[in-house]
Amino acid sequence: MLFENNEVALVTGASRGIGKSIALELAKNGADVILTYNGRESESNKVAEEIIKMNRRALVYKCNVANEEEVTKVIKSAAKEMGRLDILVNNAGIVQDGYIGMMSNEKWENVIQTNLNGCFYCCRQAVKTMIKFGNGGAIVNLSSTSGIVGQAGQVNYCASKGAIISLTKSLSKEVVKYNIRVNAVAPGFIMTDMTKATGMEIINKYIPHIPMGRIGLPEEVAKTVVFFASSNSSYITGKVLTVDGGMING
Ligand code: NAI
């Protein structure tokens, strides 16, 4: 068991995909989990039921990460209800692709607001809460290989995911004195609803560029997130780890 002191983790966008896998993997390793969702309450409740069956505590909160007030309120109340907050996983994210000539301000702003500003709002409140509890903590941010190497048709998404890496590095230096570590995981192609929306035809074109010759699984990202969330990475902060079957050199 990696988490032996009833550690509490908050995962954003935990109703499906990578977020759901992260929530389950954290619980499997002994953490209690605060699941936040934006639109899928019943799916989130099902994830919570699975966690409760593992004899861990689970709370479900509606929280749109793009809404600063909602984030502040939810993190404060959930941490109070659980009695502590040790881990934050900034997983919630969206894509709204388009080539630059067709990229409306709205698409640009929606993606930056959710992926980057949302991550900032959550980090800010979680850091305040962790400092208040005085037990240190770990923050894991979901970036993307696209944020490192770039991707045509995704300037908004890549800018948000690249900025998450800079945010991670800066914040890690700022909060190290409170025993809070901040790291990022950058997945490559992972089989989730977000990827499926891109279309299997496009995905299949990428497979020959993946040395492992396959798309990754949400559980493979979740295990890396749990590594950064646990004391197995106690001497690591400000780092980005790609989980991409060897796709990029980064
Ligand atoms: P997904 O679309 O299956 O799940 C994203 C989750 O975020 C959903 O539960 C959604 O409701 C939630 N969400 C979206 N906007 C939200 C908001 N404003 N407030 C709260 N929650 C919100 O996507 P997937 O694939 O599971 O992605 C999870 C994370 O991993 C994202 O940050 C994504 O950018 C990142 N990622 C995914 C990759 C992939 O290949 N699937 C590759 C690289 C990064």
Structure description:
The chain has nine helices and seven strands; from the N terminus they run βαβαβαβαβααβαααβ. The protein has 250 residues and is of the alpha/beta class. The protein has one domain (8-189, 219-243): 3-Layer(aba) Sandwich (Rossmann fold), CATH 3.40.50. A seven-stranded parallel β-sheet has the order 3-2-1-4-5-6-7, sandwiched between helices. Helix 1 (17-28) runs parallel beside helix 2 (41-53). The mean pLDDT is 97. The structure holds 1,4-dihydronicotinamide adenine dinucleotide (NAI). 1,4-dihydronicotinamide adenine dinucleotide (NAI) binds next to helix 1, helix 4 and helix 7. This is 3-oxoacyl-[acyl-carrier-protein] reductase FabG.
Topology:
Blueprint: E1 8-11, H1 17-28, E2 32-37, H2 41-53, E3 58-62, H3 68-82, E4 87-90, H4 105-133, E5 137-142, H5 146-149, H6 155-175, E6 180-187, H7 193-198, H8 200-206, H9 218-229, E7 240-243
Parallel strand pairs: 1-2, 1-4, 2-3, 4-5, 5-6, 6-7
Helix pairs in contact: 1-2, 1-9, 3-4, 4-6
The protein binds 1,4-dihydronicotinamide adenine dinucleotide (NAI).
